[in-house]
Each structure stands twice: as structure tokens, then as C-alpha cells.
Amino acid sequence: MSELVPQSIGGKMDYAQAMAGSNLLPKHFQGNPANLLYAIEFAEALGMKPIHAITSVHVINGKPSASADLIGSMVRKAGHKLRVTGDETFAEAVLIRADDPDFEFKARWDLSKAKQAGLNTPTWRAYPGAMLKARAITEVCRAGAPDALHGIQHSTEELETVPPSNSRSHAPQPVEDVQELIEVPMITEVQWQEVVNACSTAGIENPGAFVAETLGRQLPGPNAIKADELPLIMNTINNNEGA
After folding, report:
1. Which of 99, 108, 118, 178 is found 20 to 30 A from 194 (Cα to Cα)?
2. CA-to-CA distance for 77 and 127, rounded, in angstroms?
3. How many CB atoms lie within 10 A of CB 101?
4. Per-residue pLDDT tens digits for 82-134
5. Which residues of the chain form beta strands (DSSP E)?
6. Beta carbons of 154 and 85 less than 8 angstroms apart
7. In what order do the strands lie in the sheet with 154-155?
8. DSSP-based three-state secondary structure for 67
9. How far is 77 from 95, CA to CA, in rounded Å?
């Protein structure tokens, strides 16, 4: 955990109390030091900086969720291999555990499977390839490396289908967009500078173009980068270093 965060529980509470006054935090953390303390403790369990947990891990109905890219990063950090292939019509994820290299866990999602699951939100229609990839990654990681997820069972992308609380049906009901359930903030200027510095260290001359290629879309500026995309960006930069 970041050395800037106190290690004692009292120090963490004071830290959360001070940070809760920031209007740059996601709304569910603003003025809520208890939620921030939860995020700090969860970050410590995940071995990441608290700010990454605050911006990338979301708690829905008392259960933590994270982006599929962060889930994949956690699995790779635990030493397992994760390979993802696909296009705009399908995605396949293969996981090979470090302690059992002779067995492959596989998950495949295509448009037919997505349609059968009732996934027809605006996000799915706009970015089918990315959403299929997210589903495949989450499914294979949950099946093959649950020990690396530290209690995270669902990705934020899976929240695209949530049954209404007053429904008697158990079938998933589509919602308009995951943004209606959680607020995903954009990265800060400080975080963008971290990206720029990491690119410089890795010998990447044009950070903006590199990030756009990594995310697969044009970026009008750093304020168009979502905070939960930061782990993917940093991992890609680190993998590119020395290449």
C-alpha cells in the first residue's frame, strides 16, 4: 500500500476523514469516510494503491466489483497466464494457472450468446467487441482463479443486466447503461502525468497516441480516459518497456 497512507487504523480513519472532503472523488465517497476506509482496506488486501481501489473498485449491494481489465490484471499479478483473443463478433479467454500449467480454463462469448443473455444495452450495441471481451475475461477468471480476486465476483460490465428488486422474475433485465448504477470518474491530471512519466521511461514518444491505440478509440484529451481504464494502460506500458 502507498506509504502516504498511515498504517494504524486510527491513522487510516483520519486519512479517510480528510479525503472525504474532496469533490473530485466519486459521489459515493464524497462526505463518506466510512466508504473510503473500506476502499483503503480493500486496496491493502489487493496490494494496490488506495486511489486505484477508490476509482476502479465499486461496491454494489455490499459486494465489490471491478472492471474486467482490473480483474485480468489481478489474475496476471497472481502469476497465472491469461490470453484473450477476438474481434467485434466474439471473444475467447484462456487462463492457465501457475500451479497447474497442464490444464486450460476457457470462456467464449459471441453475439449469439450475448443475445440469449438479453444483453442489448446502448453500450453493448456501441462496443460489442469490448463487452464480449469483458464477459469472457470475467467468466474465465472467476472459474479458474477465484483465489486471485479477493472476493470480487462480478465485473462492472456485468452490471449491464441487473434484475429489478421488485421483480418476481429471476431473468436478468437490461438497464440502459452501467453508468446509471455507478459513477466511473475520469483520471486526474496527476494520474495522467503518471502515464506520461511511465511512457517516457518505456521509451514511448507519443503517450496520447499510445493510450488511444491501447484503448482502441480516439481520445480528445486525458479527460476522456476513465479511471478504471488506468490499470490496463499502465500494464500495457510496462509490458512495452524494453520491447
Report:
1. 178
2. 27
3. 10
4. 999 999 999 999 999 999 999 999 999 999 999 888 887 777 888 889 889 99
5. 57-60, 63-66, 81-86, 90-96, 105-110, 154-155
6. no
7. 57-60, 63-66, 154-155
8. coil
9. 13
